[in-house]
TrEMBL record:
It comes from the Eukaryota. SUPFAM superfamilies: F-box domain, RNI-like. Residues 39-85 form the F-box domain. InterPro entries: F-box-like_dom_sf, F-box_dom, LRR_dom_sf. This is F-box domain-containing protein.
Length: 485
């Protein structure tokens, strides 16, 4: 009896692709006696690792991988890899030729086959922006019919539904055109919410509804998910100013993300009756219209009812609008995820006056597309130092504005609670242009002027103050920063 590794003799019943196996060859019987699985190799990866890999692949790629070996074929039928269903332009579609050329049409058979075979394992449905509204309408029709056909709910594990409407399109002659949801498409979406049950996370972006269409959609959500919904995001839900009173009827809601023009004093007071609400996020983008903030008197009442409530103010996208400050609100975070935002001294003073005892996170992400002043009085140095000095609870600070090395040292010195500091290296000027502070000793000011002359010395000094290794970030790394809330 002989043992062959990798180059075993071919035998009837042997897989030619199975070259990593150790084969025991019986010369007398002229056949394979046993095949041992290899200790390592792609075919013997742990099931949990293979499931994670398969989950990242598209449907067609999963099928191709299932043809590789028996182990991968078994993983193909694992419920864990079918937890997420992502709908794009090409999902469940096929090409058909007409007089205008080829077009993508939705295959009803593929959708029905998916729902009947693995629909019960689906936990999350994500609908990405698509301009083929007809295919999306047909998909919603089939999904709604599937959910209401059976006596028992056929998708018991479905907890997350995220829908982003493609509201902006570009016409060659006219240019960008922004349209909202309506008509039969909105009716079908409303019907779908009427048959979905026990959702825990619901995200609706850029629907831009008319004020008359808003109540019908939210009433269906309240009907089936008022007690189960934990996370609710309504970004640019309406075109105009329209208070969304229905969000106050979500009794189990813990986090609400909403645009400011959909919240009034009455809506906030209704939310105050929800004792489970932990965080309220006001988000603005280029589709958000101008509106008035909630009055400070209302915020005072809400803070007395819900002392645990945290409020986050956020501006994102390609917009030039400034963050809408909510006076006397329990704001713990202010983030600007737009390249056009800049720090102004009056705005910084308003932030200090209103949120000096609650602010924990402040910053600007993305690379700027605005002109940065070089003179000390026109830069944001004094505003950032005042923010850190008068808001003692700040733990995270993201700086992309042009500042000097001396300002960076003062921020690290004054920030008693500062734990994470992110600074763009290309925005830091090697300069000491601060006058001597009144409460500083002369030796301390001399140390500031000396250390500010070298980037390396500044990084070493900041590392010592933060008690961890620290360095300024190049633009490539700063551009990739994301805040995990």
């Amino acid at each position: 009896m002989e043992i062959y590794e990798d180059e075993a003799r071919p035998s009837k019943g042997m897989d030619k692709n199975d070259q990593d196996n150790i084969v025991v060859w019986n010369e007398s019987k002229n056949e394979v006696c046993s095949i041992y699985r290899p200790v390592n190799g792609w075919a013997t990866l742990p099931d949990i690792v293979l499931e994670d890999v398969f989950e990242l692949l598209e449907f067609r790629e999963r099928y191709y991988c299932s043809r590789v070996c028996k182990n991968w074929y078994i993983i193909f039928f694992s419920p864990r890899i079918w937890r997420t269903l992502e709908i794009t332009e090409t999902t469940f579609t096929y090409l058909k030729h007409n007089i205008f050329g080829y077009e993508l049409l939705l295959s009803h058979e593929r959708v029905q086959l998916y729902l009947t075979r693995v629909g019960e394992y689906t936990k999350r449905i994500v609908v990405h922006p698509t301009f083929n509204f007809h295919n999306l309408y047909e998909f919603y029709t089939i999904l709604a019919a599937f959910l209401e056909f059976f006596e028992e709910y056929p998708m018991p594990h479905l907890e997350i539904f995220e829908f982003t409407f493609a509201c902006e399109s570009r016409i060659p002659v006219v240019g960008p055109v922004v349209l909202g949801t309506g008509g039969q498409f909105l009716e079908k979406l409303t019907h779908l919410f009427g048959v979905m049950k026990n959702l825990k996370r619901l995200v609706l972006k850029y629907l831009l509804l008319e004020s008359t269409d808003v109540p019908g959609v939210l009433e269906q959500v309240v009907k089936n998910c008022s007690t189960s919904l934990l996370y609710f995001e309504l970004r640019d839900f309406s075109k105009e100013k329209c208070p969304l009173f229905q969000v106050g009827m979500m009794h189990g809601l813990r986090k609400l993300v909403i645009t400011p023009h959909n919240v009034t004093d009455d809506v906030l007071l209704m939310l105050a009756n929800n004792t489970s609400l932990e965080e309220l996020v006001f988000i603005q983008d280029k589709y958000t219209i101008e509106s008035e903030p909630v009055s400070s008197k209302t915020w005072k009442v809400v803070r007395s009812i819900m002392p645990w409530l945290k409020v986050r103010l956020q501006v994102s996208g390609l917009t030039r609008s400034k963050v809408l400050l909510q006076e006397r609100a329990p704001v713990w975070c202010i983030m600007h995820e737009t390249p056009y935002a800049s720090i102004s001294t009056p705005e910084m003073h308003r932030i200090i006056d209103n949120y000096r005892n609650t602010l924990r996170v402040y910053g600007h992400l993305m690379l700027p597309r605005t002109h940065g002043a070089r003179t000390f009085h026109c830069r944001a140095d004094s505003g950032l130092v005042a923010l850190v000095r008068h808001c003692p609870h700040i733990t995270k600070l993201y700086i992309r504005e042009r500042i000097s090395t001396a300002t960076l040292l003062i921020i690290a010195t004054e920030g008693k609670s500062l734990k994470e500091l992110y600074v763009r290296r290309n925005a830091v000027i090697l300069k000491s242009d601060w006058p001597k502070p009144i409460h500083w000793e002369q030796w301390r000011y001399d140390w500031l002027c000396k250390t500010a002359r070298s980037y390396q010395m500044v990084e070493q000094a900041v590392s010592a103050m933060l008690k961890q290794k620290w360095s300024m970030l190049p633009d490539a790394q700063f551009k990739q920063l994301r805040v995990n809330f």
